[in-house]
Amino acid sequence: MKILMVLTSHEELGETGKKTGFWLEEFAAPYYIFKDAGAKITLASPEGGQPPLDPSSNTPDAQTSATERFQMDDAAQAHLASTEKLSTVSADSFDAVFYPGGHGPLWDLAGDKNSIALIETFYAKNKPLGAVCHAPAIFKSTKTPDGKPLVNGKTVTGFTNSEEKAVELIDVVPFLVEDMLKENGGNFERAEDWAPFVVSDGNLITGQNPASSTAAAEKLLEQLRD
Protein backbone atom coordinates (compact mmCIF):
# COMPACT_ATOMS: atom_id res chain seq x y z
CA MET A 1 0.00 0.00 0.00
CA LYS A 2 1.64 3.19 -1.22
CA ILE A 3 0.22 6.56 -0.24
CA LEU A 4 1.33 9.98 -1.45
CA MET A 5 0.86 12.99 0.84
CA VAL A 6 1.13 16.40 -0.81
CA LEU A 7 1.92 19.51 1.24
CA THR A 8 2.05 23.20 0.44
CA SER A 9 5.26 25.17 -0.12
CA HIS A 10 3.61 28.57 0.44
CA GLU A 11 4.37 30.43 3.67
CA GLU A 12 3.12 34.02 3.28
CA LEU A 13 -0.33 34.75 4.71
CA GLY A 14 -1.40 37.18 2.00
CA GLU A 15 -0.15 40.70 2.71
CA THR A 16 -0.47 40.45 6.49
CA GLY A 17 3.25 39.95 7.07
CA LYS A 18 2.38 36.78 8.98
CA LYS A 19 3.35 33.22 8.12
CA THR A 20 1.20 30.28 7.07
CA GLY A 21 1.83 26.84 5.56
CA PHE A 22 0.44 23.42 6.37
CA TRP A 23 -1.54 22.64 9.54
CA LEU A 24 0.36 20.25 11.78
CA GLU A 25 -2.58 18.15 13.01
CA GLU A 26 -3.83 17.68 9.45
CA PHE A 27 -0.47 16.21 8.50
CA ALA A 28 0.43 14.32 11.67
CA ALA A 29 -2.84 12.48 12.28
CA PRO A 30 -3.16 11.05 8.74
CA TYR A 31 0.59 10.34 8.60
CA TYR A 32 0.42 8.06 11.64
CA ILE A 33 -2.86 6.46 10.61
CA PHE A 34 -1.25 5.49 7.31
CA LYS A 35 2.06 4.50 8.90
CA ASP A 36 0.43 2.37 11.59
CA ALA A 37 -1.57 0.61 8.87
CA GLY A 38 1.68 -0.42 7.20
CA ALA A 39 1.55 1.99 4.28
CA LYS A 40 4.66 3.21 2.52
CA ILE A 41 4.32 7.00 2.63
CA THR A 42 5.89 9.41 0.17
CA LEU A 43 5.80 13.14 0.94
CA ALA A 44 5.87 15.76 -1.81
CA SER A 45 5.49 19.53 -2.17
CA PRO A 46 5.77 21.97 -5.10
CA GLU A 47 9.28 23.08 -4.13
CA GLY A 48 10.46 19.94 -2.35
CA GLY A 49 12.38 19.94 0.91
CA GLN A 50 10.94 21.25 4.15
CA PRO A 51 7.39 22.56 3.75
CA PRO A 52 6.45 25.58 5.87
CA LEU A 53 4.54 24.89 9.07
CA ASP A 54 1.74 27.28 9.99
CA PRO A 55 2.93 28.60 13.37
CA SER A 56 -0.67 28.82 14.60
CA SER A 57 -0.88 25.03 14.36
CA ASN A 58 2.08 24.55 16.67
CA THR A 59 0.83 26.48 19.69
CA PRO A 60 0.14 24.63 22.96
CA ASP A 61 -3.63 24.79 22.50
CA ALA A 62 -3.40 23.24 19.02
CA GLN A 63 -1.59 20.09 20.14
CA THR A 64 -3.12 16.64 19.80
CA SER A 65 -1.83 13.15 20.50
CA ALA A 66 -0.68 12.94 16.86
CA THR A 67 1.22 16.25 16.93
CA GLU A 68 2.83 15.32 20.24
CA ARG A 69 3.90 12.00 18.76
CA PHE A 70 5.38 13.85 15.79
CA GLN A 71 7.34 16.21 18.06
CA MET A 72 9.07 13.17 19.58
CA ASP A 73 9.63 11.36 16.26
CA ASP A 74 13.00 12.25 14.75
CA ALA A 75 12.48 9.93 11.77
CA ALA A 76 9.15 11.52 10.88
CA GLN A 77 10.64 15.01 11.20
CA ALA A 78 13.49 14.04 8.88
CA HIS A 79 10.98 12.56 6.44
CA LEU A 80 9.01 15.81 6.41
CA ALA A 81 12.15 17.88 5.92
CA SER A 82 12.97 16.08 2.68
CA THR A 83 9.75 16.08 0.66
CA GLU A 84 10.11 15.24 -2.99
CA LYS A 85 9.39 17.83 -5.67
CA LEU A 86 5.84 17.42 -6.88
CA SER A 87 6.98 17.57 -10.49
CA THR A 88 8.94 14.33 -10.02
CA VAL A 89 6.13 12.11 -8.71
CA SER A 90 3.69 10.06 -10.76
CA ALA A 91 0.19 8.94 -9.86
CA ASP A 92 1.04 5.53 -11.31
CA SER A 93 3.40 4.91 -8.38
CA PHE A 94 0.72 5.22 -5.69
CA ASP A 95 -2.53 3.66 -4.56
CA ALA A 96 -3.95 6.86 -3.04
CA VAL A 97 -3.16 10.52 -2.38
CA PHE A 98 -3.94 12.73 0.61
CA TYR A 99 -3.68 16.52 0.91
CA PRO A 100 -3.35 18.08 4.39
CA GLY A 101 -4.67 21.62 4.73
CA GLY A 102 -3.52 24.84 6.27
CA HIS A 103 -3.99 28.13 4.41
CA GLY A 104 -0.92 27.58 2.21
CA PRO A 105 -2.69 25.44 -0.44
CA LEU A 106 -5.01 28.35 -1.29
CA TRP A 107 -2.04 30.15 -2.81
CA ASP A 108 0.02 27.41 -4.45
CA LEU A 109 -1.64 23.99 -4.77
CA ALA A 110 -4.96 25.45 -5.98
CA GLY A 111 -3.28 26.44 -9.25
CA ASP A 112 -0.20 24.20 -9.38
CA LYS A 113 -0.15 22.47 -12.77
CA ASN A 114 1.61 19.38 -11.41
CA SER A 115 -0.92 19.01 -8.61
CA ILE A 116 -3.82 19.51 -11.01
CA ALA A 117 -2.49 16.83 -13.37
CA LEU A 118 -1.85 14.47 -10.47
CA ILE A 119 -5.36 14.86 -9.05
CA GLU A 120 -6.99 14.42 -12.44
CA THR A 121 -5.03 11.20 -12.98
CA PHE A 122 -5.92 9.78 -9.55
CA TYR A 123 -9.56 10.63 -10.15
CA ALA A 124 -9.67 9.16 -13.66
CA LYS A 125 -8.09 5.93 -12.40
CA ASN A 126 -10.56 5.75 -9.50
CA LYS A 127 -7.84 5.84 -6.86
CA PRO A 128 -8.78 7.27 -3.44
CA LEU A 129 -8.20 11.01 -3.23
CA GLY A 130 -8.42 12.76 0.16
CA ALA A 131 -8.26 16.43 1.18
CA VAL A 132 -9.01 18.06 4.52
CA CYS A 133 -9.89 21.59 5.72
CA HIS A 134 -8.36 24.13 3.29
CA ALA A 135 -6.88 21.40 1.09
CA PRO A 136 -10.09 21.03 -1.00
CA ALA A 137 -8.75 24.26 -2.54
CA ILE A 138 -6.92 21.82 -4.82
CA PHE A 139 -10.18 21.28 -6.71
CA LYS A 140 -10.38 24.90 -7.90
CA SER A 141 -9.10 24.14 -11.40
CA THR A 142 -9.27 20.35 -11.68
CA LYS A 143 -11.45 18.76 -14.36
CA THR A 144 -12.98 15.37 -15.05
CA PRO A 145 -12.00 13.58 -18.29
CA ASP A 146 -15.03 15.17 -20.00
CA GLY A 147 -13.92 18.67 -19.04
CA LYS A 148 -16.33 19.48 -16.21
CA PRO A 149 -15.13 20.74 -12.82
CA LEU A 150 -14.03 17.64 -10.91
CA VAL A 151 -16.36 18.34 -7.99
CA ASN A 152 -19.38 19.10 -10.19
CA GLY A 153 -22.29 17.04 -8.87
CA LYS A 154 -20.12 15.56 -6.10
CA THR A 155 -20.86 15.76 -2.40
CA VAL A 156 -17.95 17.58 -0.78
CA THR A 157 -16.97 19.55 2.30
CA GLY A 158 -14.13 21.80 3.39
CA PHE A 159 -13.33 24.76 5.62
CA THR A 160 -16.56 26.74 5.86
CA ASN A 161 -17.12 30.44 5.35
CA SER A 162 -18.18 30.76 8.99
CA GLU A 163 -14.99 29.05 10.16
CA GLU A 164 -12.92 31.39 7.97
CA LYS A 165 -14.81 34.33 9.47
CA ALA A 166 -14.11 33.01 12.96
CA VAL A 167 -10.34 33.05 12.34
CA GLU A 168 -10.69 36.56 10.85
CA LEU A 169 -9.16 35.73 7.48
CA ILE A 170 -12.17 36.26 5.20
CA ASP A 171 -10.52 39.36 3.70
CA VAL A 172 -7.02 37.82 3.56
CA VAL A 173 -7.48 34.56 1.66
CA PRO A 174 -7.53 34.62 -2.18
CA PHE A 175 -10.84 32.74 -2.20
CA LEU A 176 -13.18 30.92 0.17
CA VAL A 177 -13.12 27.12 -0.03
CA GLU A 178 -16.86 26.75 0.53
CA ASP A 179 -17.77 29.32 -2.13
CA MET A 180 -15.35 27.83 -4.67
CA LEU A 181 -16.66 24.29 -4.22
CA LYS A 182 -20.23 25.52 -4.68
CA GLU A 183 -19.29 27.59 -7.73
CA ASN A 184 -17.70 24.49 -9.26
CA GLY A 185 -20.97 22.62 -8.87
CA GLY A 186 -20.17 20.73 -5.69
CA ASN A 187 -22.93 19.65 -3.33
CA PHE A 188 -21.42 21.26 -0.24
CA GLU A 189 -22.29 19.71 3.12
CA ARG A 190 -21.10 20.75 6.56
CA ALA A 191 -21.41 20.19 10.28
CA GLU A 192 -21.22 22.79 13.03
CA ASP A 193 -18.07 24.89 13.08
CA TRP A 194 -15.03 22.93 14.32
CA ALA A 195 -16.94 19.63 14.60
CA PRO A 196 -15.43 16.55 12.88
CA PHE A 197 -17.13 15.99 9.53
CA VAL A 198 -16.13 13.91 6.51
CA VAL A 199 -17.95 13.01 3.32
CA SER A 200 -17.02 10.62 0.56
CA ASP A 201 -18.40 10.47 -2.96
CA GLY A 202 -16.89 7.77 -5.12
CA ASN A 203 -13.12 7.98 -4.68
CA LEU A 204 -13.34 11.59 -3.44
CA ILE A 205 -12.94 12.09 0.34
CA THR A 206 -13.11 15.52 1.95
CA GLY A 207 -12.97 16.71 5.56
CA GLN A 208 -14.26 20.01 6.93
CA ASN A 209 -11.60 21.18 9.39
CA PRO A 210 -8.60 20.10 11.49
CA ALA A 211 -10.82 17.95 13.71
CA SER A 212 -11.76 15.96 10.60
CA SER A 213 -8.24 14.88 9.67
CA THR A 214 -8.31 11.54 11.48
CA ALA A 215 -11.69 10.50 10.08
CA ALA A 216 -10.71 11.56 6.56
CA ALA A 217 -7.54 9.45 6.69
CA GLU A 218 -9.46 6.47 8.09
CA LYS A 219 -12.02 6.78 5.29
CA LEU A 220 -9.25 6.76 2.70
CA LEU A 221 -7.81 3.59 4.24
CA GLU A 222 -11.26 1.98 4.15
CA GLN A 223 -11.45 2.62 0.41
CA LEU A 224 -8.02 1.11 -0.12
CA ARG A 225 -9.05 -2.03 1.75
CA ASP A 226 -12.35 -2.50 -0.07
Content-based structural category: alpha/beta
CATH homologous superfamily designation: Class I glutamine amidotransferase (GATase) domain
Counting structural domains, the number is 1
Oligomer class: single chain
Share of residues in strands = 5-15%
What string, H for helix and E for strand, traces the elements in order?
A: EHEHHEEHHEEHHEEEH
Unreliable stretches (pLDDT < 50, length at least 5) are: none
Keywords:
226 residues; two-stranded parallel ribbon; Rossmann fold; 8 helices
Summarize the structure.
This protein is α/β, with parallel strands linked by helices and 226 residues long.
Characterise this structure:
The chain is globular and about 45 Å long. The chain has one domain (2-225): Rossmann fold, CATH 3.40.50.880. Helix 1 (24-36) links the parallel strand 1 (2-6) and strand 2. The mean pLDDT is 97. The chain contains 8 helices and 9 strands. The two termini are 13 Å apart. With 226 residues, the chain is α/β, with parallel strands linked by helices.
Helices, strands, pairings?
Blueprint: E1 2-6, H1 24-36, E2 40-45, H2 65-71, H3 74-81, E3 84-85, E4 96-99, H4 104-107, H5 113-124, E5 129-132, E6 155-156, H6 161-166, H7 177-183, E7 187-188, E8 198-201, E9 204-207, H8 213-225
Parallel strand pairs: 1-2, 1-4, 2-3, 4-5, 5-9, 6-7
Antiparallel strand pairs: 8-9
